[in-house]
Amino acid sequence: MDLIQEGKVKRVLQDPDSAERVIIEFTDAVTAGDGAKKEEFSGKGNVATEMSHYLFGYLEGKGIDTHYVKKLSSNQLLCKKVTIFPVEVVCRNIAAGSFCRRYGTEKGTPFPEPLVEFFLKDDEYHDPLITADAIIRLGLAKRDELEFMKSVTLSTNYYLGEILKQRELILVDFKLEFGKTKKELIVLADELSPDSMRIWDSNTTSMDKDVFREDKGDLIGAYNKVFEEIKKAKPQDVEQRTESIQVIVEPKSGIKNPPGEVTKKALGRLGFAEVEEVRVGKVFVITLKRPLTTEILNHLAIMNLKLLSNPISETNKVRIE
Ligand code: UDP
Q: Is residue 174's pLDDT more than 80?
């Protein structure tokens, strides 16, 4: 099998049976601090494979598109071949790790709402925090793609958080990667294991890679314990998360817009002389029954053309937030 890529803890191999599939092979390596600290733990590849297999399947069942196809062996997953966006998407519920180092926040401080951050995947520059605008300016992803990834990250946070909560485990933070398939679908990729998540038990004891980062004991024992607990949870009891998106329809500039003209005159009478033009459009707030997928966005584009807007006189944009 041809090696496509060798990472710090995984290998990506070409599936000999399909050009559009890859085999992800998990090794027993564990790394921290940009690979500065590295060790082998027997059984780690297995538990990361099993947990990724289980959690990707769970998320797919809840309507999230992933690259996962099936488990091939105790350390190999068959996945769709994707082009990975060079950004890591981190979601935090509680302050820990680099967030505390950056802002001096006390570890364990809960956030009123989940926080989504982007990091540039670049070892040479130590994966720096990056803004959405910088990602767009660098041409690494488009704005709507980032909004989409953020939305899927928040859905993932909800679904992972709920299943862990059933077993009195706390999802502190996690990192996701996304990729684009040949058919231009954006899907959740990479892996899902305590290698890329912080999970605490009810006493705030780490059950994840922090055990290794901070030399706190039995890493594989912690990973296996988390997996045992996840398997005892009941995915069917996790309620479906709905999601709201907005379609904003604006009359094009230069096209007659009588309500806008009336509003402009009224504003002028009230003394707002600085108003040059007012165009009155409309906003559709659409609540979806399930997490956003590229397919739903494509449906929305068709809905837009057929019903929500008139492409000759109006522009429309979709806001996912
Ligand atoms: N994370 C990861 N890979 C990375 C960086 C972070 O899987 O290259 C995960 C990490 O395990 C944690 C979350 O993303 O669950 C947030 O990590 P943070 O930014 O706090 O960095 P850390 O201090 O963990 O390196």
A: yes
pTM: 0.95
Atom 5, ligand 1: residue with shortest CA distance: 175
Residue linked to tokens 């605490």: 200
**Centre of ligand 1 from the C-alpha of residue 114, in Å:** 15
* DSSP secondary structure code for residue 306 in this structure: I
What is the whole-number distance in angstroms between the Cα of residue 40 and the centre of ligand 1? Answer: 19
pLDDT in tens, 6-58: 999 999 999 999 999 999 999 999 999 888 999 999 999 999 999 999 999 99
Q: Is 150 in the pocket of ligand 1 (CB under 6 A)?
A: no
Neighbours of 284 (CB within 10 A): 17
Give the confidence band of 82 by pLDDT, cuts at 50, 70, 90: very high
- Tell whether ligand 1 has an atom less than 6 A from the beta carbon of residue 174: yes
Q: What are the structural domains, with CATH classification, of the chain?
A: 45-237 (3.30.470.20), 243-320 (3.30.1280.10)
Q: What whole-number distance in Å separates Cα of residue 164 and Cα of residue 229?
A: 8
Atom of ligand 1 nearest to the CA of 208: 11
